[in-house]
Design a protein that fits this description.
The chain has 345 residues and is α/β, with parallel strands linked by helices. The protein is built from 15 helices and 11 strands. The protein is globular, with a radius of gyration of 22 Å.
Amino acid sequence: MGQDPAFDTETIGFLLIPQFSMIAFTSAVEPLRIANRMAGKPLYRWTVLSKDGQAVKASNGISVGVDTSLAELSRQSGLSKPLDMIFACSGLGIERYRDDEVFAWLRRAERQGVGIGALCTGSHLLARAGLLGGYRCAIHWENLPGFAETFPEIPVSSDLFEVDRKRYTCSGGTAAIDMMMHLIALRQGRDLATKVSEQCLVDRIRSPHDRQRLPLRARLGVHNPKLVSAIELMEANIAEPLPQEELAAHVGLSRRQLERLFRKQLGHSPAHYYLELRLERAQHLINQSDLPIVDLALACGFVSASHFSKCYRQLYGRSPREERANAILRGVPMPERPVRQKVLA
């Protein structure tokens, strides 16, 4: 590369993994295209890759053609660095993805000085390839619990994206726009990133630390600050559930007052609501990790696998083992929120 980065063309590869997220992929590519247009010169060039050079089907069922295979790109580049940066684009089912050839190719690229990135659930792939040791990463909020249980040694955040030296990881969806505009600003300046943002009809460039999910008030349609605080405490204490008295004391209420507040605002007791939160977390772990059922139960605050299975069946109509078997058969779709049924407290 030359001395003035403003006149270099940066080459970025997008490695498509079956069932990849289309929204994350296109949200990453389009800011690069728009940056070239706004600058009036080719600041960025990109190439779309698959392991074998064949089209790859996204999670929405659309097949995307690619430019080349990993092997062909390596042959073309010879001993030189094949790309400046590569993003692994994945989505559904990545927890069970195993391909030693792909992992080895990514490690070789990293040794050649290629920046390594991931979109949506791609941090799972990078972790399997051994490329996240000592690096922070981001991943989609639904996959975060499973990732944290599978790779406890890797710092993972619920931020929109993480840029840690030459690792670029993104939670997916439209957060890919924010990450790419952040990288454009770092390399080409804030003015160009702002122009790209305006072309995307995005009213601001979100920071990496903006939240992935809607605030609780918006998600649940509740505004009582004590109720919101109680639910935040529940969500933060899944593995070791707080006793009702302690939960109430934290938000400045008696246990009876907390009970009345939950029933009035949500139609459930605090114990019932807390249990469903834990079971929902369990469903994510079943679909998105290989944890044994007994370990998974403990991670969600259950003292025994039998009690966990009983509660799980009552809420979802199937056992945890049936859930896992079905997830594998159906390609591990994102879990849906349950139809509310009566659950043992």
